[in-house]
Design a protein that fits this description.
heterodimer; A: 190 residues; alpha+beta; 15% strand; disordered N terminus; B: 139 residues; mainly alpha; 4 helices; 53% helix
Chain lengths: 190, 139
Amino acid sequence: MTTRENRNIARPARTNVGILHLLWYRRIDCTVSKQKRFSIVLQSRLPSRDGTLKDDVFIEAVRCILGLPSHILKPFADEHHFIGRNATMVDAHGSMVKNAMLINGDYHRMHASIQSLIIDMFKKANIWAIREPQNMLHGLVPAEILKQYCDHHSIQEFIIPDIMTYDHPHRERSGRMVLQRRIFEVKGCE
Amino acid sequence: MRIDSRMNKYNPCNPNRRAVEKRVVEIEAYYMKRAKKLDTTFAAGNNPNPFLSAYKSYGMNGTDSLLVGHFGEINKGYEQLICSLAKVAAESQEAGNITPASSTDHKRKGTCALFKKRFKVALGCMAIRTQTELMIRRE
């Protein structure tokens, strides 16, 4: 830690309690790098829209941020418990539990939430966006080829992005603003 | 080390490279592969690569990947998107009467910074909460 940051930390002692509390959050911002700021946001802000979070969820979230073993998985992380179709061994930190493929699905856990959040961001910016469009290639591929593509029975071969927008503003190198067609693929990786 | 659903990947050449940045390359390659496969299936012998050229006409050179990691970390493209959306949102009429969300916001100048901060807060909280709830559900 640099001398300047030490000076910042010493300052709250001379202020009142309320400001000291807020400066503590600022100190976290100073000490962690820019790339990792997203992971501590839960500590400095309300965890949900209504400001409530269940006790067990909050405890697990904090333990996850701190890199500690999971509290609820402690009894199962004894190398004798397995989860999912591939019978993955339960680990203490819960990483394999989250990644396990269950028989009833539940793979796309973060995917839908991130999609909704990005759509909301686009709405806030007054940009039209559509979720999972199937007409991405219309108007760009010759009609006779596109007809074969649309008549094809296997939808697995289709290219369907998660989000598409036609009027996304983009600044060119010359400084001019142009509206771009863009597609986005959303992934939640663990 | 990145633990995937099917395999473990370890890259000793560049251990500082984050999991979200590694996944971006995979997604781009996957889209290119699918576009090329469509070209060989539907447009063999016709125009040169109509599906691939249509795919590349989007954005800079195809799809933009938006990745969120286990701790709410995001890739570079996502950060750029948040910045650009915050700028556009700050220019709208609705942003004219915006007030700071907390007492620490007064030092952040401008509406754009406030929007950016709100987007980041929403994203970080959502990622951690979703991951934790999933694990508790699977207990």
